[in-house]
Known about the structure:
CATH superfamily of the largest domain: Ribonuclease H-like superfamily/Ribonuclease H
Radius of gyration: 27 Å
Strand content: 5-15%
Number of helices: 13
CATH class of the largest domain: Alpha Beta
Structural class: alpha/beta
CATH architecture of the largest domain: 2-Layer Sandwich
Number of strands: 5
Number of domains: 2
Distance between the termini: 54 Å
Strand order of the largest sheet: 3-2-1-4-5
Amino acid sequence: MESKELLQSLKLSTFIAFDFETTGLDPNNDRIIEIAAIRFEHGEIVDRFVSLVNPGIDIPNLITEITGISNSMVYKSPTEAEIIDDFLSFLRDSPLVAHNIRFDEQFLSRLCQRHEKEENNFKKYDTLQLARSLLFEQPVFNLTALSDFYGLSSDNAHRAENDTENTGFIFLELIKELAGYPLDFISKVNALIQGESIPNLHLYVEMASALAMKGDLQKGLIKHGIIPNCKTNIFSHNGPNSVESLSAEDVFGNSGALSKVHRNFENRPNQEQYAKLVNKILSESGKIGVLEAGTGLGKSM
Length: 301
């Protein structure tokens, strides 16, 4: 399936990536100092709306250090009241994409409330949540790290336009990754999020519909673009001593190995019983164990 066809099947032929730079993290008291919104059609940038905004309050020094945006830069920029109509007109009713969209949508809602504008019921998509779900082998999911992962420039990180552009392209890559999963997987996700009001909800629903129409329950719409390099959590070491015939009593008993090397050793029957149970679980195929024990038992040993 071609990229354009994939986006069309997910009702994402057109979407807008957007980002706000703000004076702080509180949508009730802080204000927007830069707006960027970029329209994608069929996976390509076709239009953009970018502007500094005069917040009407001082920009903290920390924000200037992070974004590079100073009070002098926004002094002659349009205010919220002067820019909001053009901004909302640009958004129209397009699906919105952002990195950690909860942050940006709160500022968007307060912006509309302050100026008594009706906020559209946008379909919302979050690249942060998608990345955490799909790129599970990655250690960091901030925008800079994901931009580096996909070979995108981070030279102007924390400026709205560059962040927005990267967010749009990262979203396209994550869509391809999600499209590699079969209907069974997507259906389980939909069952988990049913009734929830969360970003990406529409993406999973439309993905399930597209997979059902394809009719192949075993494969995704396209092949996975990424082969995860997940590290195993099983450590194996070939030492010189055989432990196959070693019992819990041989280690933790009154005359066990620990009693010979620890001067203050004391036998703990519960610890020995715990070790026997762990050994049984590990040695019998197909078994799992859920164990709880109080402090001081010696679980680490």
